[in-house]
Structures are given as structure tokens and as C-alpha cells.
Amino acid sequence: MTAEELYEKLKKLQEPKGYFFNKDKELVLELLDGLLANKERYGYMCCPCRLSANDRDADKDIFCPCVYREPDVKEFGSCYCNLYVSREWNEGKIKDDYVPERRGQ
């Protein structure tokens, strides 16, 4: 699967849930390439913005979409990686602030 194919597949699955890809498609495709590389490396698509333990159980919280996406998008309009965002974030109605790391807190 290519990053572009993954983009189309995930877009159809996530947009109805209110999660949109960042309008910067180049960034999105880079992140999706990272997810695909992690799937090849570890056997699962864990967050490309975090360090994997290379242990499925230890990494369950960072399988993309990670468990932190919902609270991050709710609070900041974007997930930690800036892969998934709200419609308002993409439209510039929400300030593009740094999203702090929630993992391990």
C-alpha cells in the first residue's frame, strides 16, 4: 500500500467521525509514509512522531489513531503529530498551537 492509497482509505473512515487530515497534504503523506514504515518494521502502524517500544502491548496507546487523538483534537484542534485535525483547525478558526505530549503523564 502506498501513502496515497492509505490517505484515501483513512479519509473515508475518519472524516465521518469528525477527524480530518491536515490541509498540508505533503506533511500528511510524510506521516502516512512513517506509519507504513512502522507497520513494516514493527507489524503495526504506530505513531511516527513517538518512539516505539517495539512491543505491541506497550505500544497499544500509540496505534494510529492513538488514544490521545480525541482529547488533543478536542482541546487543541489537532493531534500531537498534526496528522488529524478538526475542520475548524483546517479553516484557520483555531490557532495552530503546540500540542503537548500526553503519553506518560
Write up this protein.
Helix 1 packs across helix 2 (25-42). This protein starts with a helix and ends in a 15-residue tail after the last helix. The longest helix is centred in the N-terminal third of the chain and has 18 residues, at 25-42. It has five helices and two strands; from the N terminus they run H-E-H-H-H-E-H. A two-stranded antiparallel ribbon has the order 1-2. The protein has helices spanning 3-14, 25-42, 56-59, 69-76, 87-90; strands at residues 20-21, 84-85. The mean pLDDT is 96. It has 105 residues and is mainly α. The chain is globular.
Overall morphology: globular
The mean pLDDT is 96
Q: In total, how many beta strands?
A: 2
The arrangement of helices and strands along the chain is: HEHHHEH
Overall SS class: mainly alpha
Query: What are the segments in which pLDDT stays under 50 over at least 5 consecutive residues?
Result: none
